[in-house]
Amino acid sequence: MPSEMYGVYSDETHEQFIQRANRVFPADCVRAWSRIERAVFNHLMAKLIHRNTYSAISDEMLEECRDDMTEIVSRCGENFD
Known about the structure:
With 81 residues, the chain is mainly alpha-helical. The chain has helices spanning 14-24, 27-31, 35-51, 59-80. It starts with 13 loop residues before the first helix and ends with a helix.
């Protein structure tokens, strides 16, 4: 079975990873992010990329990152109200 069936992409380049991540983080949504959302995204993605190669980062990991980001930003918003 190809590794793509498991959301893992062998020998993936940076550009290929960006294209795949765009499916989880669509560009039109990203453009509308606040500074807090951008900071949280950058922190979570940097942590993910630091610990894994691009090809080792599965689609599920990207989705978890998105969910974590949503939760963190939501909690930050509660603290500002």
